Amino acid sequence: MKLPPLAPLRAFEAAARHLSFTRAAEELHVTQGAISQQVKQLEEYLGFALFHRRPRKLALTAEGGAFQEVVGNALRQISDKAESLKSSRDSGPVTVSVVPSFAAKWLIPRLTAFRQAHPDIPVRVDANHDRVDLRDGEVDLAVRFTWRKFPDLHSVELFRDRVFPVCSPDLVREGRAPRTLEDLANVVLLHDNATMWDESACDWEYWARAVGLKNIDVRSGPGFTQGDMVLQAAMLGDGVALTRSSLAELDLASGRLVKPLDISIPCPWAHYVVCLEESLDRPNIRAFYDWLLAEGSRVAPVYDKS
Questions:
Q1: Does residue 219 lie within any of the structural domains?
Q2: Which of 77, 104, 132, 158 makes a 20 to 30 Å CA pair with 176?
C-alpha cells in the first residue's frame, strides 16, 4: 500500500474545505507558505492540479473536488475512531496491583466508598506477589510495600505502619496471652514469611531487637505466605501474630483480635502508590489515585502514633 504523505494531505483537506490557504494555515498553526508548499508537493506526487489558483480566489479542479471527498471522509473517520478509542480508554476500568494481604485487609474494605463516590469508574484489583510492568498497559497503578521510591516511575508514599503483636481475645480470657515481653517465650509465635527475607520488613527478629527482647527464640513457630493468613491463624487462637496497622485495623476494631501488649514500633518500610507519570492524565486513573492518597492521609496519623 503506497499512500501520499500525511502532512500534505492534511494541508490539502483544510485548504479545500476553506478554499483558502490563509485559513488553512491558521487552522493548522503553520504559515500560508507552508500550506502552499505542501499542496504543491501533493500535486507533484499525484501528477495533476488540485486547485485553480486565481487572484484572491481559490477553486478546486474537478480532480481536486473528487479527491477532497475521499480525503475528507478518510480523515474524519480516523479522527472519529481516535476520539472513540481515547474516550473508551479514559472511561475504562482502573486496574490496581496489590499484594493479596493488602487487598483483603485494607483496600477491598474501602472500595465501597470509592464506588459510591465514582459509580461510573469500575476498579479491578489484581492481587498477587508478581512484578508488574506498568508500561504494558495491563495494570494502571500499583501499591507496593517497600523501603524506597521507584526513581523511574511516579511514586508517592501512601502511609507507614506500626508493628505490634496481636492474638485472639480468647487467649486473653483464658490467661494464655502474653502480659509482658518475656511471656512471649511461652506462646506460639506466628510468622509472616513474606517479611522474613529482609529484616527491615519487620519480622519477629527485627521487632524483638527494636523493643529490647532477648534470650527468646523468635524464629520458632509456624509461618504463612501472606499477612492475612497469619491474622486468620491468630483469630483462631493458634498463637500470637506480629502484624502491621494496616492489616489488623478492622479485626482490632471488630474485636476479633486484641493487642495483648501495648508495645509497637514504627515500620521502616512504607506503602507507595506507583504509576506512570502520563497515566495521571487519564481521568479515571487520576480519580482513583487521588482517592487512594486521600485514604492514606486519613489513616496515616493513626498509624504513625506511638
A1: yes
A2: 104
SS (H, E, C) 140-204: CEEEEEECCCCCCCEEEEEEEEEEEEEECHHHHHCCCCCCCHHHHHHCCEEEEHHHCCCHHHCCH
**What's the mean pLDDT in 275-283?**
93
| End residue of a domain, out of 73, 90, 107 | 90
Spatial contact of 272 and 158, defined as CB atoms under 8 Å apart:
yes
Residues 136 and 165 in one domain: no
DSSP state of 104: I
Determine the average pLDDT of the residues in 233-253. 95
pLDDT tier at 85 (50, 70, 90 boundaries)?
low
If asked whether residues 58 and 26 sit together in one domain, one would say yes
Q: Which three cell numbers stand for residue 195?
A: 517479611
What is the number of structural domains in the chain? 3
Q: How many angstroms separate the first and last alpha carbons of the chain? A: 70
